[in-house]
Amino acid sequence: MVHSKEILRKKYLLIRKNLPYYDCYAKSMSAQQRFLGSKYFSESKVIGLYYPILNEVQTFQIISQAILNLKTVCLPTIVNEQINFFKYDPTKNLKIGKYGIMEPETSSKNMNRFLDIVITPGVVFDVTGNRLDMERAITTSSLILMVFKT
Question: Which domains, ranges and CATH numbers included, belong to the chain?
């Protein structure tokens, strides 16, 4: 049985996949600028981001500005089906992770409990702003307490 959220995700993933590069770039730049100008960015010292794939909103400008502002940037790594954030070091290479997404090495300290904010990609959201999860079952219980500071 196909659920309506699966149908919505597939529909919007296809739309995103077919978005022309320039449109994706322009929308990404706009989204990043809004975040960089927000109190969420200015008040955060440790920021959890993602390495974008498949026309997701780019995060490279946020990463660069955060590093320039001496903030700690963390990227997710999947360890035993759990999402854990580790410090991103721009002088070290990222590795290809379990799902083909670039990840930092896990040799540094797990940063989950130090994150001030987590920016996560999403395809479809419900009317209250909740993200409809991916089809893969990845445990995010350790991230439940990480919400935007208001």
Answer: 4-143 (3.40.50.10420)
Q: Is the pTM of this model over 0.90?
A: no
What is the predicted pLDDT for the residue at 10?
Answer: 86
Q: Is the pLDDT of residue 73 over 80?
A: yes
For residue range 77-107, what is the model confidence (pLDDT) as tens digits? 988 888 899 999 998 888 988 888 889 988 7
State the sign of the Cα–Cα–Cα–Cα dihedral 6, 12, 18, 23.
negative
